Amino acid sequence: MVVLAVAVFVTLSACAVCCPGNKNSTKLKIQSMENQPMALQLAAVVKEMESLRCEQTTLKQQQNALTQMHITSHQKSAQKEVGTNILTYGSNDEEDNLPFFEEDSRKQRDPCFHYTILDQVWRATNTTTKIKKCDRRSKWKGWYRLFYNGKSLQMPERCIPVNKCGTHSPLWLAGPHPKRREGIVTRRVCGHWKKNCCAFRSPPIQVKKCSGNYYVYKFTEPSTCDLAYCADINTLVCGRCSRNQSCVSRDKINWRCKGKKRMSSRKIHFFASYPGQLNGKVNKIKYSKVLVNVGRAFDRRTGVFSAPVKGVYQFFFSTQTANTGLKTDLWLVVNNYWVAVSRTHLSRPSTVGNLSTYMTFLRKGAKVYVTHNCGRSWANAASMTITFGGSLLVQMK
């Protein structure tokens, strides 16, 4: 029985350590019953243990209640209404494996998990209202996410016509939205008025891209009235366009998806000859006999080929001579640069011809022709030995 009492006393002392407020009173009660029968002492010990357990439970409940009160108070302070606002929290799978308290602390600091929703139809870029809104009258606090009829969108990055977005001077983001790796960035905000897209330079705002492919904004009070932040309805339309479609608009207000026009490959081929003799220097050979001119890029009056599209072209040109000891040169000229030569040089009496080819990249409008630099070339209507031709091999955007 004495051993049991000692064990109970040790347990009671451990419990008393958990509740330091009762430690001294418990010891006093037990010491005052030292001369009492053992049964009474055990009963008193059991009673004190039950009392300590009850106090521990009460303290735990009070601690939980205080924690809940703190969380509720924090949420209420953040839930300031501006128009039709709802406090929501996003989700991010990257933080799912974090410890509870670390994850909760991180979400409290990250605006992607702590923002106010602005779901107001009048903010849309295609909306006009009789009663003009002014965001200067709103008490902005914290971060906000733009919605339109329950669908997430973003601020426009372009000038919005006046009297749109439910206001006189619509506010748009004068800069690109950030990428996720950039974190929180600061962007200028402009208000359109009297044909001046940035007539009003509103105070800068902060922007962040979140993992759910949406943006949150830390709005500030505009510089004057009536100015209001816009929600770009184009975000919803163009977000549904496929890869082979582009988002187009006639009035820059109403947008639609339209199939991209495939670039049709142009067919460019020409072949011309000079049916006569050339002596000495001839700046531009005017090939008067044109047999092929698909695409009509070669001008027979000037002997000049003009590239109608950007791409890779291949040219050929030739000469023939029969003069012993005389060097004859024909040069291909591209944009006034001599780039390739067709040369003949006879050491004994004979007739010889030479054909040269050249492939190059040309931009639209490039000029190509052939010059006779020196020597003597000959041809007639039947032989066609002084020639110039070319083709478009690959068209480029």
Please outline the major beta sheet.
5 strands, mixed
Overall pLDDT, averaged? 79
Order of helices and strands: HHHEHEEEEEEEEHEEEEEEEEEEEEEE
Using DSSP, what is the number of strands? 23
Structural class: alpha+beta
Radius of gyration: 44 Å
Overall spatial form: elongated
Can you give the helix content as a percent range?
10-25%
Which spans have pLDDT < 50 for at least 5 consecutive residues? 1-21, 74-98
Our count of helices gives 5
Distance between the termini: 100 Å
Order of strands, widest sheet: 8-7-6-5-9
Number of domains: 3
Beta-strand content bin: 25-35%
General description of the model:
By secondary structure, the chain is α+β, with helices and mostly antiparallel strands. The chain folds into 3 domains: 2-67; 95-259, no CATH class; 269-395, Jelly Rolls. It is built from 5 helices and 23 strands. The strands form 6 sheets. The protein has a 5-stranded mixed beta sheet with strand order 8-7-6-5-9, with no helix packed on it. A 5-stranded antiparallel beta sheet has the order 14-12-23-17-20, with no helix packed on it. The protein has a 5-stranded antiparallel beta sheet with strand order 15-16-21-18-19, with no helix packed on it. Strand 15 (298-299) and strand 16 (304-306) form a beta hairpin. Helix 1 packs parallel to helix 3. The protein is elongated and about 150 Å long. Mean pLDDT is 79; it is low at 1-21 and 74-98.
